[in-house]
Amino acid sequence: MIAKEKDPAAFIEVGPAGEPSSGVVAGAVPADGAAWRVPAGGQAVVPMATWTPDANLEATCRDFSDLELGPDGRLYVLSDKSASLARLDPLAAGGGEATAETAWSLGKLAGKPEGLAFTPNGRAIVALDTAKARANILLFEPPVATSDAR
To answer: Which residues contact 122 (CB under 8 A, 6 or more apart)?
Structure first.
C-alpha cells in the first residue's frame, strides 16, 4: 500500500500484474517477520486499486504524509498539514472511498509530522521535520492502535 500525499491524496494498492486487489483489512497482512511473496523473475508491481478520501477524511487529513499498519492490524495515516492521525476503516478490495473510523489532533508541534510508527502496545511514534535533528521524535499516550480498538 502506498500513500500518495496530495494533488489529490490517495491510497494505492500495488502488486504483481494480473493479481486481484485484496484491499487492507485486519488480519490480511503478513504478520511481523513473515516473508512477503516476491514475484518470480523480478516482475514489477503495478497499481491494482485506488482509494480516495471521503469528505470527512479529507477535512481531517488534508494530506497523507505517512501510512502505517498498527499492531492491531489496522491502517493509520498521518497528516502534516492537519497535524492529525486517523485510523482508517478497512479498505475493501477493488478501491473506492477511504473513510476514517476515528482521528486525533496532534496539537501544536515544533515541526511538521512526517513519519509514523507504533510501539508493540499501540503508542504512536511521530517523527518531526525540524530545522535541527534533535528532540524530533514524539511518543504519544495513550495507546491508540490496540487490538480492542473497533
So the answer is: 70, 71, 72, 143, 144, 145, 146, 149
Residues of the chain falling short of pLDDT 50: 150
Spatial distance between the Cα atoms of 96 and 103, rounded to a whole number of angstroms:
20
Q: What is the pLDDT of residues 91-126, one digit of tens each?
A: 999 999 999 999 999 999 989 999 999 999 999 999
Is the peptide bond between 142 and the residue preceding it cis, with omega within 30 degrees of 0? yes
Closest to 126 measured CA to CA, from 117, 36, 105: 117
Q: Can you give the pTM of this predicted structure?
A: 0.87
Other Cβ atoms closer than 10 A to 39: 12
CA dist 95 and 77 (Å) reads: 17
